[in-house]
C-alpha cells in the first residue's frame, strides 16, 4: 500500500511537471530573439513557383470593350530556379533562371457567378521570358540588386525583381515585434504611389526556431486623387495584406501569400449630371518553394 501511494504521488508530480513545462514553453519561445535573414548556402538550388491572379472590373463605361459589367481576369504562373553561386556576410549572388511562364486572360460578362468567360488570348500562352537567366545580389535583409547589365535584362523582368516581397530588420526581433519597410507595388497594380510603407510583424516561430511566420499589412500610400481629361477626377485607395514563412535553416523565404485590393472612384466634372463610376482591382500572389520537378 505504501509503495502504491508513493508511486501515485510520483506520477502526479511527473504529470504536474509536464503540464508546467508545456505551459511555459510558449512563453519561452516568445522570449527568444530571432534573426530573419536571407542566407542560403553556396551550391544550393531553390525551386520557386509564383502564381498570380489579377481581377479588374467596375461600372465605368469604356472598360473591357465598352461593357460596364465585364470583369477581366489575368493569371500568371512562373517557375524559377535560384542557384546560389556565392555567399558571404554581405549577401549572396544568385542566378535566377526562369524555366517557364504561362499567361492567360479571360473576360466574364454580367453579374458575378452568371457570366460566361471567354479566353483572350488562349490560356497557357508562352512567354518570351522562358529560359531567361539573370544574376542577382540579395542582401541579408532581402534587398535585391540586379548585377547583369541593362541590355541583358528586360524591363518586365526588372519589375518582377523589384516586386520581391522580402524585407527584414537587420537586428534580431521577438515574437510580437513589428517593423516598417517600403515595398515596390507589383506590376499591373496601376496605383499612383511608386512605393508604399507596410508594417511587418513576427507572429510566431516554431519551437525549434527553424521557421518564422510573419504577417504584413498596410495601405497603398495615401489616398490618390488624379485629374483626367474632361475635368473628371479619379480617387484611388488600396490596401495590402499578406503572410510569409521564413525557413531560417535554409535561409530563404519559402512561402508568401498576398492580397492587394485597389478601389477607384471616377467623379464627373462639376455641374455634370453623370453618376460616379467605380473600378476595382484585386491582385492575389502566392510565391512558394517547391520540390524539384
Notes on the structure:
- The protein has 293 residues and is mainly β.
- The chain has a single domain, classed as Lipovitellin-phosvitin complex, beta-sheet shell regions, CATH 2.30.230.
- The protein is built from two helices and 16 strands.
- Strands 2, 3, 4, 5, 6, 7, 8, 10, 11, 12, 13, 14, 15 and 16 form a 14-stranded antiparallel beta sheet that branches. It has a two-stranded antiparallel sheet with strand order 1-9.
- A hairpin with a 4-residue loop joins strand 14 and strand 15.
- The longest helix is centred in the N-terminal third of the chain and has 30 residues.
- It is globular and about 85 Å long.
- About 7% of the residues have low confidence.
Amino acid at each position: 500500500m505504501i509503495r502504491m501511494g508513493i508511486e501515485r504521488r510520483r506520477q502526479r508530480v511527473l504529470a504536474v511537471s509536464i503540464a508546467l513545462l508545456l505551459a511555459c514553453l510558449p512563453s519561452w519561445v516568445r522570449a527568444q530573439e530571432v534573426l530573419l535573414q536571407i542566407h542560403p548556402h553556396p551550391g544550393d538550388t531553390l525551386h520557386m513557383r509564383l502564381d498570380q491572379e489579377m481581377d479588374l472590373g467596375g461600372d465605368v463605361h469604356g472598360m473591357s470593350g465598352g461593357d460596364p459589367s465585364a470583369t477581366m481576369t489575368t493569371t500568371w504562373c512562373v517557375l524559377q530556379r535560384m542557384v546560389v553561386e556565392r555567399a558571404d556576410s554581405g549577401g549572396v549572388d544568385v542566378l535566377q533562371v526562369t524555366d517557364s511562364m504561362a499567361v492567360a486572360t479571360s473576360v466574364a460578362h454580367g453579374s458575378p457567378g452568371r457570366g460566361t468567360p471567354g479566353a483572350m488570348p488562349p490560356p497557357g500562352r508562352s512567354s518570351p521570358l522562358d529560359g531567361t537567366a539573370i544574376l542577382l545580389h540579395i542582401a541579408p535583409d532581402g534587398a535585391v540588386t540586379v548585377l547583369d547589365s541593362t541590355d541583358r535584362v528586360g524591363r518586365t523582368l526588372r519589375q518582377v525583381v523589384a516586386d520581391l516581397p522580402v524585407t527584414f530588420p537587420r537586428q534580431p526581433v521577438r515574437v510580437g515585434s513589428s517593423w516598417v519597410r517600403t515595398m515596390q507595388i507589383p506590376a499591373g497594380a496601376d496605383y499612383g504611389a511608386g512605393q508604399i510603407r507596410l508594417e511587418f510583424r513576427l507572429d510566431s516561430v516554431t519551437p525549434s526556431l527553424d521557421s518564422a511566420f510573419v504577417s504584413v499589412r498596410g495601405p497603398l500610400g495615401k489616398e490618390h486623387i488624379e485629374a483626367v481629361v474632361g475635368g473628371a477626377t479619379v480617387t484611388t485607395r488600396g490596401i495590402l495584406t499578406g503572410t510569409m514563412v521564413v525557413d531560417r535553416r535554409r535561409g530563404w523565404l519559402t512561402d508568401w501569400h498576398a492580397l492587394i485590393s485597389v478601389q477607384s472612384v471616377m467623379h464627373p466634372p462639376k455641374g455634370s449630371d453623370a453618376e460616379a463610376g467605380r473600378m476595382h482591382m484585386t491582385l492575389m500572389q502566392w510565391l512558394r518553394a517547391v520540390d524539384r520537378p
